[in-house]
Specification:
The complex is a heterodimer of chains A (about 240) and B (about 290).
Chain A: E1 6-15, E2 18-28, E3 33-38, H1 44-51, E4 56-63, E5 66-67, H2 73-78, E6 81-84, H3 96-103, H4 110-123, H5 125-129, H6 140-152, E7 158-162, H7 170-187, E8 190-195, H8 198-204, E9 207-212, E10 215-221, H9 222-227, H10 229-236
Parallel strand pairs in A: 3-8, 3-9, 6-7, 7-8
Antiparallel strand pairs in A: 1-2, 1-4, 4-5, 9-10
Chain B: H1 2-32, H2 39-55, H3 60-83, H4 91-113, H5 137-159, H6 161-171, H7 173-178, H8 183-209, H9 215-230, H10 235-256, H11 262-276
Classes of the chains: A alpha/beta (about 240), B mainly alpha (about 290).
């Protein structure tokens, strides 16, 4: 685990006086997909927000050897961490095209950006058809695709995904997870995935951590967790 | 009839200036949800700088450009140094800061340049090409200058990456941070632009109303009326609101209430808009589910 892309140690996070994360440790190997599972309020979203420094944090989070704790959010992003946030973070009044251009805001290779936008449209043809449409008029599934594409426009080393399946029809969810898999295998983007849907998450991820009220309750390879009796009963419903 | 048309055209010329001040207010409002009460006094101070440069013998348009640059830089620095510490503070704290800035700039104008009323030159020759049947040369000239500023601003926001980033930062600051936009700096650039637009408006209005430390106080009221009438979250509304206020003020002043009561038009519009139509003509009606 020493050569991990992301190494989190004793990470605490709080909203005002409310402590949400009570010192969690986890890691992520480059090129892999790691899932964070847990019930509502376990601190899954907060973990992602803590990595991006969108919430008051203490402890340590090393990304590629660089300390993230204490760095402003926009500087964390500039190191190559893209975040598909809870609620999708769409720039609703801007066009689909402008949303994608914003994803590449920190990049300086302008000509390659245009190519990447076309790549996103070939990956998600529905976005291509709506490129000049105001992003707020897209359906939930399309906005999720837009959020993932916008994050990928950064050419990130690490993609943080906050419940990409939330509120979407099963068919759309299957499509999105198929594309996430291909992004990981084709482009080598590492992912940290937060999901309520444990079944889906464990199928996609190599490794998973189970959060309970702000602490890591269990961790292991996806295969082991899927076989674990308590995980099966509580999170997989089988 | 000619006199009537002249009133309308001269109203449009004034309206452009009101619209620009309104636009400066709206730009900052969109990003921060605060109205900068010091916008007018900042513009007055900028105009004094232009006056001093012209007194030193600089050609008009050189002084104009230098003032534009200085005002932009000053706006940027004011946001970084004075407003950034209160970015997350309650509204009233910000209002206090704005009123403080208003008093500081007003006092500084008087202190550095004294309180006597000064003539400010117009760059447009009295009997030149720009003089037409309905416009005086200065009216038409300032109309063109303000139009140029507005178009340049539109192009900036529409076609440049930093303009796009500023729109994104104003609309959804959290998402903007997540794509790496330095949101706080975008606010500073917004302040710079607002100060620079204000400076242009000040330099265009000064030949008409003459330059003194309180030059913009009335204009700022018209600017507020324009911004509110157009819808305080809509830049186009601000400009159109400015034109409407300009024409209305001129016509009512000439035919109905007389010039003495002109400023009342602005106040009636402000109170009327806020009570009858708070979102303005082109503003968004925000509905929140609770």
């Amino acid at each position: 685990m020493s050569s991990g892309l992301l190494e989190v140690k004793d990470l605490h996070a709080a909203y005002g006086a409310t402590q949400v994360l009570h010192g969690i440790d986890f890691g992520l190997q480059g090129g892999r997909i790691t899932a964070i599972l847990g019930a509502n309020g376990a601190g899954k979203t907060t973990t992602l927000r803590a990595i991006c420094q969108m919430v008051r944090t203490s402890g340590s989070a090393l990304f590629d050897g660089q300390q993230l704790v204490g760095r402003p959010t926009e500087e964390v992003v500039r190191l190559g961490v893209a975040h598909v946030p809870d609620g999708r973070g769409t720039f609703t009044a801007l066009s689909v095209d402008e949303n994608l251009r914003l994803g590449a805001h920190v990049r300086r290779d302008r000509d390659r950006v245009a190519q990447d936008i076309e790549k996103m449209y070939s990956r998600f043809p529905r976005l291509g058809e709506r490129r000049h449409q105001q992003a707020g008029t897209l359906s939930g599934g399309e906005q999720q695709m837009l959020a993932i594409s916008r994050a990928l426009m950064l050419r990130p080393k690490l993609l943080l995904l906050d419940e990409p399946s939330f509120g979407l029809a099963p068919k759309i969810v299957a499509e999105i997870f198929r594309i996430l898999r291909s992004i990981n295998t084709d482009d080598g983007v590492s992912m940290l995935l937060v999901e309520q849907n444990a079944q889906l998450a464990l199928e996609l991820a190599d490794r998973a951590y189970l959060l309970e009220t702000g602490r890591v309750a269990l961790s292991g390879s996806s295969r082991d967790l899927m076989a674990d009796e308590s995980v099966r009963r509580t999170y997989l419903g089988v | 009839m000619d006199a009537f048309l002249h009133q309308i055209f001269s109203g449009l010329a004034n309206g452009c200036i009101y619209g620009s001040i309104a636009l400066a207010l709206v730009m900052i409002y969109q990003a921060t949800h605060h109205l900068n009460f010091a916008q007018g006094e900042m513009a007055t101070f900028s105009t004094f700088i232009a006056w001093a440069l012209i007194q030193k013998g600089l050609p008009y348009w050189v002084a104009f450009s230098v003032t534009f640059g200085i005002s932009f830089a000053a706006g940027l620095v004011i946001q970084r140094v004075i407003l950034r510490p209160v970015e997350k503070a309650p509204v009233l704290t910000n209002v206090n800061v704005f009123i403080g800035l208003l008093l500081i700039f007003n006092a500084c104008s008087g202190w550095f340049f004294d309180h006597t009323v000064k003539a400010f030159p117009s760059p447009f020759a009295q009997e030149g090409l720009l003089k037409t049947q309905f416009f005086s040369a200065h009216e038409f000239g300032s109309f063109l200058v303000m139009l140029t500023v507005l178009l340049a601003l539109y192009a900036f926001f529409r076609f440049t990456p930093i303009g796009l980033a500023m729109r994104a930062a104003a609309q959804n600051p959290e998402s903007a941070r997540l794509v790496g936009i330095r949101v706080s700096w975008m606010l500073a650039v917004g302040w710079g632009l607002a100060a620079a637009i204000g400076a242009v408006a000040g330099m265009m209005v000064a030949p008409v109303v003459f330059l003194d430390p309180n030059m913009m106080s009335g204009i700022l009221l018209y600017g507020f009326a324009a911004a509110l009438l157009g819808g305080v979250d809509n830049p186009w509304g601000a400009v159109i609101g400015g034109l409407i206020v300009g024409v209305l003020e001129n016509l009512l002043g000439a035919y109905v209430i007389g010039t003495e009561l002109k400023l009342t038009v602005a106040l009636v519009l402000i109170v009327g808009t806020l009570t009858l139509m708070p979102a303005g003509l082109f503003g968004k009606h925000v509905v929140t589910r609770v």
